[in-house]
Amino acid sequence: MSGIYIHIPFCKQACHYCDFHFSTSMKKKEEMVLAIANELKLRKIEFQDELVETIYFGGGTPSVLELDEINFLINTVYDNYSVSQTPEITLEANPDDLSEARIIAFSQSKINRLSIGIQSFFEDDLQMMHRAHNSAEAKKCLEIATHYFDNITIDLIYGIPGMTNEKWLYNIEIALAFNVPHISCYALTVEPKTALSKLIQTGKIAEPNDEVAQMHFLTLVETLENKGFVHYELSNFGKENYFSKNNSAYWLGKKYLGIGPSAHSFDGISRSWNISNNSLYIKSIQENNLPKEVEILSKTDRYNEYIMTGLRTIWGVSFEKIASDFGNDYLDYCQNQMQKFLKDDLLFVENNILKTTKKGKFLTDGIASDLFMLN
Fold this sequence. Notes:
By secondary structure, the chain is an alpha/beta fold.
């Protein structure tokens, strides 16, 4: 199983918390679409023996593209790659782009999964985050989208300064009322050089509180699991048969191509990433040059990535895989490092697979870093 990620680097406006690569100017949109299509053609040799099972439009805000532009890129994939009979084709979209007419048009295309950036159903939260949509648009687009799409995921953000646990629970309950089969939830994080970071530094917004975020996380897990969702990755909850195939491939170490400026790729041995500059990206592709850097991953790099991704998922970290892929020295190291977390009931072992306990889930990233092998 392999996937193609297509980065659309445009947004109507900049969210205060976002540090992804994008531009709020649409001047180069047509050139960018052509460049992305050309990169797909230039890189098809990398996937000549692969079957593409997922196509994911991320960003940025892919829903700023016209449907014919999206279809053009999908058709370029089909024309240059072997695509499975039933691929998962996801479009990230913002509520303000999802009018009924557009939702219907998307549903009549090859797109079969929507990822909708709700973030919150409360007006004050949306304004604080500087989102382009409002609460009414969030609810309206879900009301319509659920009539035309079976496979929908929504994003929510917790740990927002001033958000009570009751307010967070109400956010979850509103989402559940629309019967979406997948929900992704992320703690609000303060990234350097973002507007949010500056607002906190100047005292205009309070800094997120880790204890509040942990309380929100525990509420989230309990509420969604009681509603039949499987907590299959740290930030992701899905009903059976609705796990994200695209994201699951990342966590399971499958190959993927990242197309577009700033997009990352992985082939099992090396990782590469494109330049994060729209003009330079377009210019390079027009000259048939791939504007990317490549890093060959060492055995230790690959072991550390496996620990990080494995602990975040229900599939855990297999001792057998560590021994076979990295060697017994790595297995011994992992088993020694994990002992303190077993004693503290943060990790447990089941069928020779290391997993996080419910108590340990919120602390997964920190636990994983303690299991990393230093180069």
